[in-house]
Design goal:
- By secondary structure, this protein is mainly alpha-helical.
- Among the domains are: 30-78, no CATH class; 94-133, no CATH class.
- The chain is built from four helices and no strands.
Length: 139
């Protein structure tokens, strides 16, 4: 025990500390949602829906949302939805486009090197005074 001023008394047993469990999001199965909707529809007396919601630990907004989903015909809306980003289907031609893009880049670089070599040959022939033959010409 402790004294009135908060100082610990020798030999006193420390009180146990209650640890609260981490709260988790409640998830309702589609069958559970349908069951609650059926029970809510069966309620005819004033206050029965409130008693149902208190008994199940639900809010009226849950009931309202489930009714809207059912009205819109979203049977899948009553099932649990996977959270997170929606994965897009891969385009089967995407890999081919990437490969062709690499090939174009490689061929462009090769053509630029070939043009640079031709320019170099022209300059060397001018310096040495050698007349170059063009394709198809005989010297």
């Amino acid at each position: 025990m402790s004294s009135a001023n908060g100082a610990a008394v020798p030999g006193a047993i420390a009180s146990e500390v209650e640890v609260m469990a981490k709260a988790t999001r409640r998830r309702f199965s589609a069958e559970y949602k349908r069951k609650i909707l059926r029970e809510a529809e069966a309620c005819t007396q004033p206050g029965e829906i409130g008693a149902l919601l208190r008994r199940e630990g639900l809010y009226f907004s849950n009931l309202k949302t489930w009714r809207e989903q059912r009205t819109r015909g979203e049977l899948a809306g009553l099932a649990q939805k996977k959270r997170g980003p929606i994965l897009q289907a891969k385009n089967p031609l995407a890999a081919k486009v990437v490969a062709l893009g690499r090939e174009v880049t490689r061929q462009t670089a090769r053509a630029e090197r070939a043009e640079a070599l031709v320019e170099l040959q022209k300059k060397v022939s001018e310096i040495l005074g050698i007349a170059l033959q063009r394709n198809g010409e005989k010297g």
